[in-house]
Each structure stands twice: as structure tokens, then as C-alpha cells.
Design brief:
The chain is an alpha+beta fold and 160 residues long. The protein is built from four helices and six strands, in the order βαββαβαββα. The chain is globular, with a radius of gyration of 15 Å. Zn(2+) binds at residues 73, 112, 115.
Length: 160
């Protein structure tokens, strides 16, 4: 018997230009955020941008440390900044981008498992889904409707 109440909803876009203007603007913010990446070890500059319900955008970039795993992913930097500075403001969506240091082309990237878990915590806390925008090939983008799409069999407060 298969019984599933999790819907894995996503939309695939064959070109960034197909995205809504609000989504393209958020992706641009994530690209700008990657410019502040401190990534001397991986040379992989990741940027994340959150769109809050107030219309404000919160940016984050990956911050590495020679004593791995003391660094932080771009998504976590943005989420923790939002949590500390916009405590009860709903996060509508997050865009994630990445490129090689010194490169101009942005590359496919999806949030790591740890970031997915952190995003899920914020989604559960606000009791509203967070959309996620990410590049999955040369110019193809995916928008998922909820963090649970990326982490369907998740560990959350209900498991405690």
C-alpha cells in the first residue's frame, strides 16, 4: 500500500527569462551575494537571497574556515541573519546561486542536506511553505513549492 500526503510540486524553466520578475530579481540578489563569498578552500562562491513578506531581501554567502566544518553555507548565513534580525517575518522564498572563483558563469547548485534541514526548521517555525529557486543545468531553473519537496522524509519536531 502506498499512501503519500506529501506533494512534490515543482516548476521547471528552460530559461531564466521565463521566471517571474520577482524571481529573477531574487536570483540577481543571490548572484550579488556570491560576490562576498569567502571560499579560499573550495573556490566555489555560493550566494543566497531570501525574500521576506515585507519585500525586504536578505543576502548570505558561504563563509569557509580552515578548520572544517566551522564555516557556514550561504543559505544558512542568510537564514540565521533573517532569524536574528527579522524574528517573526515570514520568508517567502529563497534563491541559491554558485560559480567558480574568478568565473563569470553561474553553475547548477542545490542546497546541501544540512541547509535543507535548516530551511525546513524555518518553514515549520513560520508554518508557511518557503519556495526555493535553484539552477539545475546551464540555464535551466527549478522552483519548488516547499522545503519538503527537497526533504520529503524529513526529521522535524514531530519526531522528538
Amino acid at each position: 500500500m502506498i499512501n503519500s500526503d506529501i506533494e512534490l510540486k515543482y516548476i521547471a524553466y528552460n530559461d531564466e527569462a521565463e521566471l517571474e520578475p520577482e524571481d529573477r530579481a531574487l536570483i540577481d540578489d543571490a548572484k550579488k551575494a556570491s560576490e562576498s563569498s569567502y571560499s579560499p578552500y573550495s573556490n566555489f562562491e555560493v550566494g543566497a537571497a531570501l525574500l521576506l513578506e515585507t519585500g525586504e531581501v536578505v543576502r548570505g554567502s558561504n563563509q569557509e574556515n580552515s578548520s572544517y566544518p566551522c564555516g557556514s553555507c550561504a543559505e544558512q548565513v542568510a537564514l540565521f541573519h533573517s532569524g536574528a534580525n527579522h524574528k517573526d517575518v515570514v520568508i517567502k522564498k529563497i534563491a541559491v546561486t554558485a560559480k567558480k572563483k574568478g568565473g563569470s558563469a553561474f553553475l547548477p547548485v542545490t542546497p546541501c542536506g544540512s541547509c535543507r534541514q535548516v530551511m525546513l526548521e524555518y518553514q515549520i517555525k513560520q508554518n508557511l511553505p518557503i519556495e526555493i529557486l535553484m539552477q539545475v543545468s546551464a540555464n535551466k531553473w527549478i522552483k519548488v513549492s516547499s522545503v519538503e519537496v527537497l526533504l520529503p522524509f524529513c526529521f522535524n519536531k514531530n519526531a522528538l
